[in-house]
Amino acid sequence: MALIPIAVTLLALLGSAAVGDALRCNCTNCKSDPECETDGACMASIYYEKGKEEHVRMCIKRNDLVPPGQPFYCLSAEGLMNTHCCYQDYCNSIDLKVPVPRTAGDWTETGSSWGPVELVAVIAGPVFLLCVLLMVGVFLFQYHQRAYSHRQRLEVEDPSCDHLYLAKDKTLQDLIYDMSTSGSGSGLPLFVQRTVARTIVLQEIIGKGRFGEVWRGKWRGGDVAVKIFSSREERSWFREAEIYQTIMLRHENILGFIAADNKDNGTWTQLWLVSDYHEHGSLFDYLNRYSVSIESMIKLALSAASGLAHLHMEILGTQGKPGIAHRDLKSKNILVKKNGTCAIADLGLAVRHESITDTIDIAPNQRVGTKRYMAPEVLDETINMKHFDSFKCADIYALGLVYWEIARRCNAGGIHDEYQLPYYDLVPSDPSIEEMRKVVCDQKLRPSIPNWWQSYESLRVMGKIMRECWYANGAARLTALRIKKTLSQLSVEEDVKM
Ligand SMILES: *[C@@H]1O[C@H](CO)[C@@H](O)[C@H](O)[C@H]1NC(C)=O
């Protein structure tokens, strides 16, 4: 193999340079000493060898930390090895998650005759060579780009080398900011998304749903949320990624989308959707856990309305956005950010409005979404699906229910109710459409608004908004923009700092 000499050279380099004095690391392959010293980084890695998991801890010299920002020695290889570099004494003492052994077979073969250091070198060597070649390609390509148009997008197929495209020390926030201000849609170019997705290290599962699982992952030291769809759900994955990448969708109260990736490993396709991570989780979880002050209630309600207003709004022009209706708004699909505001998530069922042709971008199937939150016209199927505004009105009805969930948890004068789902007292858990229809359409019942809310201005206003979100006639309901304005006013009166 022609690549072995390169690996050996790298090894020699690694061995010959003088040992620095700053950093002490754990070492698994230093002859007598369980520790080593370096001027660079501590590294820990875990991989499979002969079907057994192997741990390596070692020192990496500063000179070997190339390229800066994302050194090859510190890269994980998808499904083969998890690697972590760090820069404090004995920080590589940690236990890493084992990689999912997708191609464990191949790995056992090569792994058996190589020690851990050689293994790293053997991986880094070819990758380095490949990347040098690719770099030449990149320069040629960029030259070509400048000479022609900026519109073309490149999709680099080999993920191990895409990262040359990523500016070495950029964080995701920088990258996304660059992308969204350069006006090329709402997100990173495809090949960058791919690179990001493939260098995320999954940490823990934080949720499960009908589509698959949600994980917390790490990318360049920051937390991200990864929604992993089962391969049956390819269409949901595609649709959600498509909606999130609608031009100009980015908004502080809509979940920040980072990347979509479909990794095909030959046997099955793994579908990823990467987004910002919010440690509070959903509004549903949040309200179950905490009661909220009047100020927090207004913050939550106003931010949710701002997010929905932005989603609904059509902005005309080349830098515009289509109107979007969510169609599955509920407290479980709204996230709570660290600063106590909301971010609307789960856009998988959303529809977009093409105003030029006055059509909706996908054939909206009958009754999707969560039955408990379905508007009366959706339950009894009288909704006019040709008319885009009908979907917006149905969202507003659901927003009213979410407001009711929030307001019940509002702690005013020492009183607040326990958390409940809307209609908890009228329908069983997991109600059928028929059960919902009886209550909402036939009996025309709505969640009850306690009398004592009248004694507090904020709760009185919230109660009034809810009633005006719940009219049987969709067209009579408030708009998201109207609600946003009313709540902005309230927030000024109540001196709420947003
Ligand atoms: C790493 O080194 C420190 C200091 O010698 C030691 O206390 C710790 O147990 C080591 N960790 C592992 C996993 O070997």
From TrEMBL:
Main function: Serine/threonine protein kinase which forms a receptor complex on ligand binding. The receptor complex consists of 2 type II and 2 type I transmembrane serine/threonine kinases. Type II receptors phosphorylate and activate type I receptors which autophosphorylate, then bind and activate SMAD transcriptional regulators, SMAD2 and SMAD3. Receptor for activin AB, activin B, activin E and NODAL.
Domain GS: 170-199
GO cellular component: plasma membrane; receptor complex
Domain annotation Protein kinase: ranges: 200-490
Keyword Ribosomal protein: no
Name of this chain's protein: Activin receptor type-1C
Cofactor(s) recorded in Swiss-Prot or TrEMBL: Mn(2+); Mg(2+)
Gene3D superfamilies for the chain: CD59, Phosphorylase Kinase, domain 1, Transferase(Phosphotransferase) domain 1
Compartment(s): Membrane
InterPro entries xrefs: Activin_recp, GS_dom, Kinase-like_dom_sf, Prot_kinase_dom, Protein_kinase_ATP_BS, Ser/Thr_kinase_AS, Snake_toxin-like_sf, TGFB_receptor
Key words, A-Z: Apoptosis, ATP-binding, Kinase, Magnesium, Manganese, Membrane, Metal-binding, Nucleotide-binding, Receptor, Serine/threonine-protein kinase, Signal, Transferase, Transmembrane, Transmembrane helix
Family, per entry: Belongs to the protein kinase superfamily. TKL Ser/Thr protein kinase family. TGFB receptor subfamily.
Organism: Oryzias javanicus
One term of GO molecular function: ATP binding
Transmembrane segments: 119-143
